[in-house]
Amino acid sequence: MIVDVHTHTPRLRRATVGAAPAAEAGRAAMRPDRPDPANVTWDEYIATMAYVDRACVFNIAAPPAGDPGDAGGPAAGAVSFGPTREVNNQTAALVRAYPDKLIGFMSVHPRDPQVLEEMEWAARDLGLRGIKLGPNYQNFDPLGEAACRLYTRAQEMGLPILFHQGTSPVRFADLDYAHPRHIDRLATRFPELRIVLAHLAHPWQADCIAVIRKHPHVWADISALHYRPWSYYTSLRLATEWSVLHKLLFGSDFPVATPQETAEAMPHINDILEGTKLPPVPIDELHKVLERDTLGILGLA
Ligand SMILES: [Zn+2]
Predict the structure, then answer these.
(1) Residue 116 Cα, ligand 1 centroid: separation in angstroms?
(2) CB within 8 A of 140, min separation 6: which ones?
(3) I want to staple 197 with a disulfide (CB 3.0 to 4.6 A). Which of 126, 165, 206, 250 is the partner?
């Protein structure tokens, strides 16, 4: 079974004439090789997910209204960002339409005074089964008191957390909040919490590997890596040398990339080595990432 652990809830249920394109002028692009996708519809989303058997899908919750850390939200078109109720309702509606394919994750904000109630509500009433957090986009300290309250409850409820990790072109998003070194202490304090670190925390892949290597329930996804060939190769080569290929999960970060292009890039990872003596990434081992029992690993089977 192929599971895409990292996809974003489309902004639009259906195409609307004159809908504003997601990519506004002057904004940094997510990918170096093509413009960010314009607004994606449910139909486009589900057609793209035909490549996988199951997909985890989520939005990102903005800081609560009036919060001093509310800097206006990411200007990144591919990342859906909004009030907690709104983003979770959007995700739940999509999952209700495709229940055999999709597993919805909620997003919540640690400084929301109602965060624990929101988690209960999203799990019980909306059927959302994990949590997506972006400490940089959401502007919260990943080891702060408020965040730890959230993790305590997530661990009790058996909700896995997928963290955005690594850099972002969004100017206001605090880089340090998305550094994987913080996850080491987090995982030590919450040893039963299932955690996925997005993008192998690019460009801090080595730090990410140090963390997933030592914590049995901390994993990393390979989404949004393959279109930077050197970065992709060195990430997976480091993962090979540190014996953590088995800790990697398949993900695309759709709409930034598709699961099909992510899978089809795998056999080409060593193409850039031609004419060099650099060691290859073992393709057979890498391919096992595609068939990983992601749902079992995250308690979602
Ligand atoms: Zn993402």
Answers:
(1) 24
(2) 63, 69, 109, 110, 111, 146, 147, 177
(3) 165
